[in-house]
Amino acid sequence: MKKITTSLLGLLAAGLVCLPAPAQELFEQQEIPNPDNTPSPVFPVPTQRQLDWMEMEFYGFSHYGYNTFIDKEWGNDIKPDPTHYAPQSIPNCDQWVSTMKSAGMTGVVVICKHHDGFCLWPTTSTDFCVTNSGGVGPQVDIPKLVSEACKKYDMKFGVYLSPWDASAATYATQDYVDGIFKTQLEELLTNYGDVFEVWFDGANGGTGFYGGETATTKTIDKTTYYDWANVAAYIHKVQPNAVVWGREFRWCGNEAGYSGRTCWANSDIRSVQSEGNNNTGYEEGFEFIPSESDVRTSQNWFWHANENIKSAEELYKIYLETVGRNATLIMNCAANTDGVLSDTQVRNLGQLGELLETRLTNNFALTATSITADQVRDGGKYDAKNVADNDKETYWATNDGQTTGSVTIELPETQQVHYVMLQEYMKLGQRVRAFNIEFSTDGSTWRSFAEGTTIGHKRIMARNDDTSSYGRGIPAKYIRVNITDSRACPLLSNIAIY
What we know:
Layout: E1 2-9, E2 24-31, H1 48-56, E3 58-62, H2 66-70, H3 93-102, E4 107-113, H4 142-152, E5 156-161, H5 174-190, E6 197-199, E7 206-208, E8 216-218, H6 228-238, E9 243-244, E10 250-251, E11 266-267, H7 269-274, E12 287-288, E13 291-296, H8 312-320, E14 327-332, H9 343-359, E15 370-373, E16 396-397, E17 405-417, E18 419-424, E19 432-440, E20 447-452, E21 459-462, E22 474-486, E23 491-497
């Protein structure tokens, strides 16, 4: 690597307003020490905040509140009345969080205010909140209950705040942004402890009562109205570890629970706002904005009677098609009017955790007889063995200019292999464009296991990339990962075999 430094010489003033000759520039070329031959980054690269968030991988969404009691999803078409929220007992947020923990989740993002505008905490910004609700509602503070449960179960805590508010008379004016929205955001970020994620929403403006007696329609320009740049700056000031929806991570483009088989973390703010390529990102994107996939465990976001609940196998497939495709997964668990998750939800989520434990934790690569590569980067730190050393800071790499390479793992004995998991060293940028995986029982005759495009933070490959069933697996003693195209020298930090 080289650095150019410039110093200006020969600026001799002949008077107050003129120079006798053009300025002369001297360029000094200096070598920057790089004793470990560390690869140069391939931009864009993530912040530490984004890296920490990507490593969470799987966390919960909690849709519960006003809509739960009026049997709606948005609640914007009913005249606001805080007494509609009338719980007869304090919601059991401890049960919500412990159930999510049993599923393998690492945190919870709780709905604090949805589009209806009802605030599930005693806010000073509006009367349409728990303070004026029915039943035991005035004693309820959902962000407080969930954040306390998160601390108890060692889960991270996040907040959802809808920018749209169909109850606010001042919505679509600056008074709403300054007097209501930003006040609510400040309360949520300064009263409930550490926050790992702030979730806004793409629904902005539409039909609502807006403080009146009849429904009307209000619209805004969602790209400018809320002053997102300064909102994000404020969030990072008071919650430096919180990632911001729409700026530091993107919606995946669907609510069905799948990410694109090609999924770049690269994108840009304008593309994210227009939702044009959110499912895939794009290689040439100049901002690092990785994907998050939101999905429901039932048919809707809020609880409704007699809805079907997804089975553990269905939820497991969703995990493979999101976390296993370079996205994070935020999975909704909707509590009922009693403030609890149904027995079916609790059972199925617990079974999901068991599936993840039994199918994706026994890594055969950790007991490999040998791990070799067809080439290794000069410098002594980039050996193929780094892909199975349980150290996320080490990686296998090739030399600069070499955008292909292969790593072969030999197991002590033939195993039934269901999945091969790959991870890039993302601190230096996402690189791999294409790869394939082969397997063998004798090290001589090779067969195709799967092929794909991007890897990113994590890519979990089943045989032929078929996630439809767990199956019997294939017998393999050798696994070979071939990087066939990359933006720069490939860096693999982890290869796991399950």
